[in-house]
Amino acid sequence: MTATTDRQEVVRFLEDRFACAQACGECAQVCAVRAGLTDPDGSDEEQQVRRKGILCAEVCDATCHVLAEQPWQNEDGLRVQVEWCRAVCLESAHTFDRSPDAEAGAAACRACARACTEFLAVLDA
Question: pLDDT at position 72, please?
Answer without folding.
Answer: 62
